[in-house]
Design a protein that fits this description.
10 helices; 19% strand; eight-stranded parallel β-sheet; TIM Barrel; 221 residues; alpha/beta; binds pyridoxal-5'-phosphate
C-alpha cells in the first residue's frame, strides 16, 4: 500500500473529533509530500534539527508537532514556527518555552506529558506533580504558553487491560483538571499499535508513523 492509501484507510476509520498527526521522523520529504498531496497537514517530528530542516524545505501550511523529548537549549529553534509541543515534561521546560516565546511576542501551544507507563525510561509528570503545576500562581503568570491538554505513552505490552487502564487514567485526570482550566481539551495518546484502544479511552489526537509511512530504519533515542 502507498502512503496515500494508508492515510486514507486510517482517516476513514477515525471519529470526527480525532486529529491525526502523521509522524514523519526519519522519513524523506518525498514521502511527506505524498501524505501532503493526500490532504494531510499535521505532521509530527522527534528531533529539533530534522524538524527545522523539514520546516524550511516543505510547504508552509503544514502544522508541525514536536513529539520528542525537548532539551531546553533547543527550544529557541522551534518556537518561531511549531504548532504544538507535545512532550513538555517539566516546569522548567515550560518556563523556557514561555521565555523564548515572549522574546518573539508569540504564544506557543503545549501539552504536558504524563508518565503512565510501567517502564522506567519514559519521560513525564506524575499526576500529582502535574496538578501542582497547573494550580500554581507561577503557572498562571506564564503568558506566552498555552497548555492545551496532555500527552502520554502507554507501556509497551500486549496486556490490553493494562494499556486501557493507563490511557483511561489520563482521561480521568483531564476531566478533573478541566474544572480548573477549560483549555485542557487535547488528549494526545495512541500510536500505530494502540490507537483504536486509545480512542476508545478518550484520545482525540493520535500520532501515527509506521502505519502510514512504513517501518523506520532506525528507532528514536
Ligand atoms: C515515533 C513516535 C510515534 C509514532 O510511532 P508509530 O508506532 O510508528 O506509529 C508516536 N509518538 C511518539 C512520541 C513517537 O516517538
Amino acid at each position: 500500500m502507498s502512503v496515500k492509501e494508508n492515510l486514507i484507510a486510517i482517516k476513514k476509520s477515525l471519529p470526527a473529533q480525532v486529529t491525526l498527526v502523521a509522524v514523519s521522523k526519519t522519513k524523506p520529504n518525498e514521502l511527506i509530500l505524498q501524505a501532503y498531496d493526500a490532504g494531510q497537514r499535521d505532521f509530527g517530528e522527534n528531533y529539533v534539527q530534522e524538524l527545522a530542516d523539514k520546516y524550511e524545505q516543505l510547504p508552509k501550511d503544514i502544522q508541525w508537532h514536536f513529539i520528542g523529548h525537548l532539551q531546553s537549549n533547543k527550544v529557541k529553534y522551534i518556537v518561531p514556527f511549531v504548532h504544538l509541543i507535545h512532550g513538555v515534561d517539566s516546569f522548567k521546560l515550560l518556563k523556557v518555552i514561555n521565555k523564548q516565546a515572549e522574546k518573539i511576542n508569540s504564544v506557543v501551544n503545549c501539552l504536558l506529558q504524563l508518565y503512565i507507563a510501567r517502564e522506567e525510561t519514559k519521560f513525564g509528570f506524575d499526576f500529582e506533580e502535574c496538578e501542582t503545576v497547573l494550580k500554581s500562581e507561577e503557572f498562571k503568570s506564564l503568558k506566552n504558553i498555552c497548555v492545551k491538554g496532555f500527552m502520554a505513552m502507554a507501556s509497551n505490552t500486549d496486556d490490553e487491560e493494562e494499556v486501557r487502564r493507563e490511557f483511561s487514567s489520563v482521561k480521568q485526570f483531564q476531566e478533573k483538571m478541566l474544572q480548573h482550566d477549560s483549555r485542557l481539551s487535547v488528549l494526545s495518546y495512541g500510536m500505530s499499535g494502540d490507537y483504536q484502544l486509545a480512542i476508545e479511552c478518550g484520545s482525540n489526537m493520535i500520532r501515527i508513523g509506521s502505519s502510514i509511512f512504513g517501518e523506520r530504519k532506525y528507532t528514536d533515542q
